[in-house]
Amino acid sequence: PAVCIKGGVPVTVLPIRPVSIQCDEVKQFDHFWAALDYYFTPLELESAATQKTQELALRRRKLEATIAELEKRVPEYRAEAARLKALAHKLLMYKAEIEEALSGRESGVRIIHVNGSRVKIELPEGDVVEIARDVPLGRQVTNLFNEAKEMEEKASKAVQVLERLKKELVKVKEEQRRVEEEVKTSAKAVAKKSWFEKFRWSITAGKRPMIGGRDASQNETIVKKYLKDHFLFFHADMPGASVVVTPPTDDPLEVLQTAQFAAAYSRAWKIGIHAVDVYYVRGEQVSKQPPSGQYLAKGSFMVYGKREYVRNIRLELAIGCRKDGDIYRVVAAPPRSAPLLAERYVVVTPGNVEKSKLAKEIAKLGKCSIDDIVAALPGSSRISEEGRGSPIPWEEIEKIFTW
């Protein structure tokens, strides 16, 4: 299987090395699904990024348009307030002369034009203004001051709204940058993704690898492709749990930590149970063949023979962030092995904080994707403790998963 690359961009994926197609570079893979992942995942990420940024871009455009309108309105409101005040002061200054002119007596104010209840007058300074004939001049002056005050209040409120919207715009821009950076990071991570990262994966404190299914389909894939006869198969003693597979071991601590991982990714977490039993068997005891006349749903298996149990496993899981070059990865692990995988991590237990909200809190530990943290969390949780580690190199982890 291979991917043809032109100008640094994957252009096609083929089950065999291309012969007739001209490529700048040919990237080969051991498995066709890996080649498909390499080709399609960046396209899916780009599509996801577009969906994420469309809403942010729309919010940004609306904010920018509103801000521009308010920035235009504020000086207009202030100018109108100043004009009304100036007019009120002039009418107040020449109040006596205006009233004399309106009464028909000689005055420094000249009547220019009368139109019903409205009259245009020329003040001694030469300004021409229009006033009402049927409203006392003092009341008109008061009304002008009130209108000026209303304009000033409009300007003041507009400034307050403007400041709030500008702060909101800064946040939207930061969110846009974060999403774009997150997509870039995800794209880089996908380009360098190891085979086991498709699944739930971790290691024990003794550096023993384990993989688990994210759903029924992956449970099926793990059993069919990766469960060898002498490997160990772990499953919480309830339906709706991740299948966890690991190479054989007799070490009780290794068994316990693998059981912890299996327990965490079970339905027990989602329904708020804090402890559950986990059983394990050899791979040769697991079969997709149901008894005669029965049917096995996708992701279901028959387990034959004796089961070994790890009783009353406390539900807790470490979630952390690690940096490998320019790649940030979210890792999940039994608490004792977390220091081998992450610079900083938290230990979570079943709780009432929604995954999306808790993920934002955990994301403060590093630059890992919030979406990846959400995907790693088994369900609603709470943080019970925080820790720091000295993670082993990614190359060593990849070697650990050579089985």
Q: Which helices and strands, and how do they pair?
A:
Layout: E1 2-6, E2 9-14, E3 25-28, H1 32-93, H2 95-102, E4 110-115, E5 118-122, E6 128-132, H3 137-191, E7 200-203, E8 209-212, H4 216-226, E9 232-236, E10 244-246, H5 252-264, H6 267-270, E11 275-282, E12 286-287, E13 302-303, E14 308-314, E15 317-324, E16 327-333, E17 344-353, H7 355-362, H8 370-376, E18 381-388, H9 394-400
Antiparallel strand pairs: 1-2, 1-3, 4-5, 5-6, 7-8, 8-10, 9-10, 9-11, 11-14, 12-13, 15-16, 15-17, 17-18
Helix pairs in contact: 1-3, 7-8
What would you say this structure looks like, in words?
With 403 residues, the protein is an alpha+beta fold. The protein folds into three domains: 29 residues, no CATH class; 112 residues; 206 residues, no CATH class. It has a six-stranded antiparallel β-sheet with strand order 7-8-10-9-11-14, sandwiched between helices. A four-stranded antiparallel β-sheet has the order 16-15-17-18. Strands 2-1-3 form a three-stranded antiparallel β-sheet, with helices on one face. A hairpin with a 2-residue loop joins strand 15 and strand 16. Helix 7 packs across helix 8. The protein is elongated, with a radius of gyration of 36 Å. The two termini are 21 Å apart.
What would a concise description of this structure say?
The chain has 9 helices and 18 strands. It is α+β, with helices and mostly antiparallel strands and 403 residues long. It folds into 3 domains: 1-29, no CATH class; 63-174; 195-400, no CATH class.
